[in-house]
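Hello,

Our lab assistant flagged a job as stuck in the queue for most of the afternoon. It eventually completed. Since we weren't sure the result was trustworthy after the delay, we are filing this so someone can double-check. Below is the sequence as submitted and the structure that was eventually returned. Let us know if re-running is recommended.
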Amino acid sequence: MNAHGINWNHRHYSLNLSFGDILVRVLNFDLGQETFTTKHHNKMVAFEGVIDLAEQVTPELVSAAFRCKHCGEIINISQGGGKCKLLPPETCINKSCESKKPKFDFLQENSTFSNYQEIWLKPFEQPRIKLGKGQKIILKQKLAKAKEGENIKVKGRLSFELKGRTTFAIPVVIATEIKRLD
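-- returned structure --
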């Protein structure tokens, strides 16, 4: 059991969290890498392996600033993240703005960006067959600094990402913690 109360030595795990006088114990927290299905959506998962492919760290727009061309009001809009389109405001928030259909300028210098990286993790015992065929993991902010060939343990929330313009999705882990094993 490590300092956080997680037992990493078995296929099923227990997790002890303490908040003052309150102890929360989660049992049978399955952390193995497996075929993820809809029952795993938005669940915490964790597993270890080797980074098979690590894309370059790129900036991701987190909050976009816009200026109304009519009145000059600056509006910040939280962005969806990932590969979404830029989401401008639909209306001006300035109550005295008289424009019925306002247009906006994007203000890059007033916008907020974060580091973003996609990696693919494969089990240690799996031979390298095709690049990017392991488990897709998204690293953000300080976690976005992984390198190919690193042995890591990943914890994160499982989500699904649509494949192109279809209704089919692939499982993606949004990492919350990485531990390098080398």
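-- support follow-up --
The delay was a queue issue, not a problem with the job. The result is valid. The longest strand covers residues 104-122. Confidence is low (pLDDT under 50) at residues 1-16, 25-33.
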